[in-house]
Amino acid sequence: ELLISQIAAGEVIERPASVVKELIENSLDAGCTHLDIAIEQGGIKRIRVRDDGCGIPHDQLALALTRHATSKVTDLADLEAVTTLGFRGEALPSIAAVSRLTLVSRVPDPAGEGMAWSLAVSGGELSEGPRPAAHPVGTSVEVCDLFYNTPARRKFLRTPRTEFEQIEQTIRRLLLAHPAVACELRHDGRLIQRLAVADHPESLRMRLEQLLGAAFAEQSLRVESVAGELALSGWVLPPALARSQPDQQFFYVNGRLVRDRLLAHAIRQAFADCLHHSRHPAYVLFLELSPDQVDVNVHPAKYEVRFRASRQVHDFIRQALVRRLAQGRL
Ligand code: ADP
Ligand code: MG
């Protein structure tokens, strides 16, 4: 069972940034409004994500670390309409199998007499708890010494600096799509980023600036387009201004970041239609459509999707962007 978890971990958990991704996704699924992230040595030594979400009941703490024990999908029909970021019940057990993990959680209770409970796991084996702990409502997951028991994998880790850059990119991807969630990020004790709740246009611009830089925040065009069941929103930088930075491409389908050839092609075509051949268009775009029109049940570490009506999706995006780029600044 431990070996299976270690193998599964190899598929999902490649580096510290993959741990950060899974932990933040769990916090978002738990409905958090505030994230507190502390990293040490690029996440190789320590990663801690604290949220103010719904918490995990005492009797389900150990279960959360058991393979395929997700609380998010209860029957097969649910899989057709997944709205949470996680649904496999694989991430926490996988991380626990290749690190020293501590889980502390507390659920809200009206009487205010409840307490937090903590559980520690080393290399997939329970090492401590559950025992009472001090923690506000919500959950903290601390992951230390990633890959300490799988030296072959540890060897592939890069420098703390590189690993931290990957973590920042992961946070950027997730927090661009969750403006209502505030976030603090510390690295080796130093405050790196503090994102406030972005609940109006000004604070949204501010978040864009913090995550993507002033040029993008100031010069991007707001996109908002609806056709039938398809809705596209977000920002695109006019092609003439786009920097050659492949990192400035963020496309979300129903809130989930994807990297998809069909979508990339539609965007490239839109730019070409406007007589620009920008190699690296810069955009943050959100496509919303009925969950049964898209298949997200693909490998968790890849970012692929399959659309039922792919031609229609392609043409909608292309036309929406062409129209917006032609308008320019409003
Ligand atoms: P999945 O997200 O696919 O369900 P995970 O292994 O990531 O599986 O998490 C297992 C379970 O642990 C989740 O289904 C959820 O019930 C619980 N859980 C994990 N992290 C949190 C959190 N931050 N807040 C509340 N519950 C959590
Ligand atoms: Mg998860």
Structure description:
The protein is an alpha+beta fold and 330 residues long. It folds into 2 domains: 2-195, Histidine kinase-like ATPase, C-terminal domain (Heat Shock Protein 90); 213-327, Ribosomal Protein S5, domain 2. Helices cover 33% and strands 26% of the residues. Strand 4 and strand 5 (125-133) form a beta hairpin. Helix 1 (2-12) crosses helix 5 and helix 10 (261-273) runs parallel beside helix 11 (310-327). It is globular, with a radius of gyration of 21 Å. The N and C termini lie far apart (58 Å). Residues 22, 25-26, 86, 91 line the site of magnesium ion (MG).
Main beta-sheet annotation = 8 strands, mixed
Order of helices and strands: HHEEHHHEEEEHHEEHHEEEEHEEEH
**Which value, in Å, is the CA radius of gyration?**
21 Å
- Quickly give the CATH architecture of the largest domain: 2-Layer Sandwich
Structural class of the helix and strand makeup? Answer: alpha+beta
Number of helices in the DSSP assignment: 11
Number of strands: 15
Q: In CATH, what is the class of the largest domain?
A: Alpha Beta
Can you give the mean pLDDT?
89
What is the total number of structural domains? 2
Shape: globular
Span between termini = 58 Å
List bound small molecules.
Answer: adenosine-5'-diphosphate, magnesium ion
Q: Provide the spatial order of strands within the biggest beta sheet.
A: 5-4-3-6-2-1-7-8
**Helical percentage:** 25-40%
β-strand percent reads: 25-35%
CATH names the topology of the largest domain as: Heat Shock Protein 90
Question: Considering the protein shown, what is the CATH homologous superfamily of the largest domain?
Answer: Histidine kinase-like ATPase, C-terminal domain
Which regions have little confidence, pLDDT < 50, spanning 5+ residues?
Answer: none
Organism: Caldichromatium japonicum
GO biological process, one term: mismatch repair
Protein name: DNA mismatch repair protein MutL
GO molecular function, one term: mismatched DNA binding
